[in-house]
Specification:
With 695 residues, the protein is α/β, with parallel strands linked by helices. The protein is built from 24 helices and 30 strands. The structure holds iron/sulfur cluster (SF4).
């Protein structure tokens, strides 16, 4: 039996963000924060408190749905639905080849599901085309950390270390809204050290800081290089550390010295005095951390921007020292584990690289197939969606746990691509904007109805426990994958009695790989309140802190890289004179497919509000509560406005939790980072016009 606080309270974790708050749930679905879980220590946010409301929600689907000749979705038996899907997949593969099939996963899937979905795409569908919505979340941080440290784990230390660092710089992350319980660690840090925030908006998080730098959207890389310039000029760099623990400083030094602080001030809008104060606080503190969020990462140069951060923190000699270093604050619940186990277009389980011959050979051996039969690297998330339909060549798409019609940039274009498919299958607990075009919708179990592991933002592998029996008619994604594999003639590789058995295979598959889970078991996770990877043997305790002695490259040294600023793909001009940027509300999670169904959340935040500065509002002739038509080169949205001095006068902000006519992603641009393939969600150019008759 699972560990329990009382006989009736079962320990598990929140279904939403990467903080993965520990909570207890009773069979009657009473949710309480878990006082003993060391990450959230008895705190949760409103999303976690209300998460169980979706389990018995009246809109939940518990019967497979197939679209009939009349264009409507109608109930079908599981056998009929699975037969339909499998027959269509086989027919489309026979007609157009395996690359015409694709799968799209999610950072919400457990490690077991991510692993099995990746295996299913490569061995049963035989397609290279699998990617996931974590591409929209973590890809730039992952690419940057891999280049600098040779390994990618969001935080290389437990969150509790944050409380003790003397200088903390949060860059483009509004954690006070996105993961409020982390503020207990940040408040403790602020009580004994310096807290700085970089954000174009004066957010709740920025309000808590002693120093707030408010750069122009899309200029984070230049600002980071500018800070390194000042660190060099003011002799803050740690030369002994650079010599002993790193390679390639000269390239970073030269690119940083090429940007003069006055130029940085002119382009970013951040005064030199603020730049200098920030870098002195970081450099002179006995311990210092820089933690980034989606702000600087969701740009078409996001990976290079992360490298500029690692350059800065390496030059200051902080990375790997106690309570110090660079880290990324992962967003999605399993954004970390989701990218480690093979649902990413370029990866195989254990963070193996699909184009690395040794990695391919290792996984082919493990799965008992010929390495030559393993597909290669597939298309990244946006590129995959952009290729849907006869023109792009992808004829069938299976979606697991992702509302791509809301979450993707240039969202109206994605609607058209989804509508061009011969087969769209969506596995979800609710109908949403993506199921609007689906030929089949398969109803799935929810978080409290199944066991499975997640890997939180610290790299701690945790266990979600099944709290109750799922409603009749809902299947686990694992069962759906196995049932489809049977029908595709690959059933033997996908027969598992439980999620724990899938985890056993996953753990063995990662032995010797970068993200080594081979020493982790469900029992060990229960006994230790989670296990930090790498954990290469059953008697290994796990690795809470990385880089104390060596980095992930064979020589153990970190890498500097010279990275240069470049403009965002689209800058304001005469036709579209304003910046547009997106973000989150405390009350909603990602595409809102779940949280928009919870009354306690929608009562507070029923719709998106466009935030703009009072001076801009006056110029546009709109007042609080009035409406603005916002247009980009890709589409238009009408928003009700909130007028606030907390945003730059050249920038509009809207949350992206809504679809249809309120979808912020109608406006965003699908310019992709060349390395991470992250879309530029955070910067595009728009124009705004007051709607006649509004306030
Ligand atoms: S959404 Fe995140 S911060 Fe809020 S309760 Fe869930 S895990 Fe915790």
């Amino acid at each position: 039996m699972v560990a329990s606080l009382t006989q009736l309270q079962i320990r598990t974790h929140c279904p939403y963000c990467a903080f993965q708050c520990g909570m207890t749930v009773s069979p009657a679905l009473e949710v309480r924060p878990d006082e003993t879980f060391p990450v959230n220590r008895g705190q949760m946010c409103i999303k976690g408190f209300t998460s169980a409301e979706l389990l018995d929600h009246r809109e939940r689907i518990t019967t497979p749905l197939l679209r009939g000749a009349d264009g409507r979705l109608a109930p079908a038996s599981w056998d009929a639905a699975l037969d339909f899907v499998a027959e269509r997949l086989l027919a489309l593969r026979a007609a157009h080849g395996p690359e015409a099939l694709a799968a799209f996963g999610s950072g919400a899937l457990t490690n077991e599901k991510a692993y099995l979905l990746g295996k299913f795409a490569r061995l049963a569908l035989r397609t290279p085309n699998i990617d996931y919505n974590g591409r929209y979340c973590m890809a730039s941080a992952a690419a940057g950390q891999n280049r600098a440290f040779g390994i990618d784990r969001g935080l290389p230390f437990p969150v509790s270390d944050i409380a003790d660092t003397k200088a903390l710089l949060l860059w483009g992350s509004n954690v006070a809204d996105t993961m409020p319980p982390i503020m207990q660690w940040i408040s403790a840090q602020r009580a004994q050290g310096a807290l700085m925030v970089v954000d174009p908006r004066r957010t709740e998080t920025a309000r808590a800081a002693q120093l707030h730098l408010q750069p122009t959207p899309g200029t984070d890389l230049l600002l980071a290089n500018g800070l390194l310039h000042l660190a060099i000029e003011d002799r803050l760099v740690d030369e002994a550390y650079i010599d002993a623990r790193t390679v390639g400083f000269e390239a970073a030094r030269q690119t940083a010295l090429a940007v003069h602080p006055a130029h940085v001030e002119r382009v970013t809008g951040v005064p030199i005095e603020q730049q200098r104060r920030a870098v002195h606080l970081l450099g002179e503190a006995e311990s210092a951390m820089l933690l980034s969020g989606r702000g600087p990462e969701q740009q078409s140069k996001g990976a290079d921007t992360v490298v500029a951060f690692t350059n800065l923190m390496l030059a200051l000699g902080k990375v790997g020292k106690p309570r110090s270093g660079y880290g990324c604050l992962t967003g999605q619940g399993n954004g970390q584990g989701g990218r480690e186990h093979g649902q990413k277009a370029d990866q195989l389980p254990g963070y193996r690289q699909i184009e690395n011959p040794d990695d391919r050979a290792a996984m082919a051996r493990f799965w008992g197939v010929d390495a030559a039969a393993l597909p290669g690297k597939g298309k990244s998330a946006y590129e995959l969606l952009d290729a849907l339909g006869p023109e792009g060549g992808i004829r069938a798409l299976l979606v697991f746990g992702s509302n791509v019609a809301v979450a993707s940039p240039n969202a109206r274009h994605i609607d058209r691509r989804l509508a061009a498919l011969d087969l769209l299958v969506v596995c979800d607990a609710f109908l949403n904007e993506t199921t609007a075009a689906a030929h089949a919708v398969l109803p799935i179990t929810q978080w409290a109805e199944e066991d499975g592991t997640m890997t939180n933002l610290e790299g701690r592998v945790i266990l979600r426990h099944r709290v109750r029996t799922p409603p009749p008619g809902a299947w686990s994604d694992l069962e759906i994958i196995a049932a489809l594999a049977e029908r595709l003639g690959e059933g033997a590789r996908f027969r598992f009695a439980s999620a724990e058995e899938v985890f056993g295979e996953l753990a063995r598959a990662t032995a010797g790989a970068r993200a080594d889970y081979s020493g982790i078991s469900y029992a060990k996770i229960r006994a230790q309140d989670g296990v930090f990877w790498p954990c290469p043997a059953p008697d290994h305790p796990g690795t809470p802190r990385l880089f104390a002695e060596r980095f992930g490259f064979p020589d153990g040294k970190a890498r500097f890289h010279g990275v240069r600023h470049r403009d965002a793909a689209e800058l304001p001009d005469a036709a579209y004179p304003l910046y547009f940027t997106t973000g989150r509300y405390k009350e909603h999670y990602n595409s809102g497919a779940q949280t928009r169904r919870v009354a306690a959340l929608t009562d507070v935040r029923p719709a998106p509000r466009l935030q703009l500065h009072p001076r801009l509002a006056a110029r546009l002739g709109v007042a609080e509560g009035g409406r603005l038509l916002v247009e980009s080169r890709r589409g238009e949205v009408t928003f009700q406005v909130t007028v606030s001095p907390d945003i730059r006068p050249d920038t509009l902000f809207a949350p992206f939790h809504w679809g249809g006519k309120s979808a912020a992603n109608t406006l965003t641009i699908p310019a992709l980072d060349p390395t991470s393939r992250m879309p530029e969600f955070k910067v595009c150019a728009v124009r705004a016009t007051a709607v006649a008759g509004s306030v």
